[in-house]
Amino acid sequence: MIYLEAQKVWLDKDLSSTNKTWKIVFFHKTPYYNKATRSNEQIKAAFQPIFDKYHVDIVFKYKHAMELIVRKREN
After folding, report:
1. What is the 8-class DSSP label of residue 64?
2. pTM value?
3. Cβ atoms of residues 14 and 50 within 8 Å
4. Is the pLDDT of residue 67 over 60?
5. Eight-class DSSP state of 3
6. 60 to each of 2, 17, 25, 74, 75, how far by Cα in Å?
7. Of 17, 20, 27, 38, which sees the most CB atoms within 10 A?
């Protein structure tokens, strides 16, 4: 999907340019959901590598609910 490629480029550029301690991402359509059947695998495959690369701490979604990515921090 063309729009995913453009968003991936933008997100990678945005996260690479910050030196903030906390990395927070907001979505309208989330890659994660509290029920596996509602998870968006296409969005997850597109963005999870970027979240990992820049150590994103939390992902919020618009669905009148909140989902979290919990990243294990090394000491």
Report:
1. S
2. 0.74
3. no
4. no
5. H
6. 23, 20, 6, 23, 25
7. 27
Using one digit for the tens of pLDDT, what is the confidence trace for 14-49? 999 999 999 998 887 777 776 666 677 888 889 999
Rounded Cα distance, 58 and 55, in Å: 9
| Maximum Cα interatomic distance, the chain, rounded to a whole number of Å | 39
Distance CA 8, CA 63 (A): 22
Structural tokens at position 15? 């996260």
DSSP secondary structure string for all residues of 4-58: HHHHHHHHHHHHHT---S--EEEESS-S--SSGGG--HHHHHHHHHHHHHTT--E
